[in-house]
Amino acid sequence: MKSETKNQKKNLPAAGFQDMESPIYSMAGKKVGSIKLPESVFSVARNDSLMHQVVTSMQDNARRPVAHTKMRGDVRGGGKKPWQQKGTGRARHGSIRSPIWRGGGVTHGPRNDKIYARAIPRKMRAKALFMALSRKVKDGEIAFVESFGITEPNTASAKKTLNALSGAGFAKLASKKRNAALIAISEPNDALKKSFRNIGSVSCTDVRNLNPVDVLRATYLLIENPEAAIKIVEHRASTKPVKAGYATPARPKKSSAKAGTKSEQK
CA angle, 140 as apex, 136 and 146 as ends, to 5°? Predict the structure, then answer.
């Protein structure tokens, strides 16, 4: 019975979200409607262990090691034995580039050829993203914007929109200097990206590229065209990505000529 109750608790939706509806804002910061949010994406129970695994793995995959030390085989010189093995009264040594010598190699130092990458299962990555989105919705840190209305690069209009949304309940949008918001767009829009590119506290990305690291790093998440964006996010959990140009190699068949020669030899 205890195991059953534990399993039931794990499958419960996140607390604090009952109606599963969120307002949609215009670029002027006014409410223009509402959208119903799917529980499978925005009401996922918290799992700190899974989130930690996914976030640390993504950070390791993005890591590019720079520090590099030389081992005793990489240091120039030291090919000759300093002195004979016996008879000098001194300790025996085979190379002046030994790690215990000054100017010698480094033991267990950092190497730039070390691989830190770790594979992340697709379902774990999707669930971690859904947990991050659920947390943002619960804390009131997601703003669904109908449209930013930017057709040409214009930083002034982008700042005006951020100031309008900050007055609608997202106060840190205009005041925070770093990682204030992450803007997710469902369709490519170079003009919008160029408009927000000059604002250091805001970054833009496509909805299909959303990941838990970027979502948790930013204070607010602004989603443009929420209906299309939610469909894209839901689709990530149910669809298995196919590698382009991948084909299963066919096994070579045994040639009949070799078989004939064997029978003839017998």
Answer: 95
